[in-house]
Specification:
Layout: H1 3-103
């Protein structure tokens, strides 16, 4: 066998080993790609669930704010009514005092 033929055989074996190693690397890359794809899908599913929960929480938050706003309005209206009533009572008390003074009646 000539030296060139022996070198050719030796190189063919080395290239075959290198090709086998690259096949292993390609398989690992394919496995990693599949793993990353599954991971990305899992992350998307979880984010979808989190977004759905946030949407429900946001709706609940808005309902709660509307309820609180309603209570605040009722309290404001009630305080306005109380102020008007207090003013009316003060006016009536002044009139009673004036009537009592004119009638010369002492109130206790």
């Amino acid at each position: 066998m000539s030296e060139i033929k022996a070198l050719e055989i030796k190189l063919d074996k080395r290239f075959k080993r290198i090709d086998e190693q690259f096949e292993g690397v390609n398989k690992n890359i394919d496995d990693l790609t599949a793993l990353m794809s599954n991971f990305a899908n899992d992350v998307n599913v979880r984010f979808d669930r989190v977004e759905a929960r946030l949407d429900r929480l946001e709706e609940s938050h808005h309902r709660l704010l509307n309820t609180v706003d309603g209570f605040v309005k009722r309290i404001d209206d009630y305080e306005t009514e109380l102020a008007a009533r207090d003013h009316k009572i003060e006016r009536l008390e002044r009139w009673i005092q004036q009537l009592a003074q004119n009638a010369k009646v002492e109130l206790s």
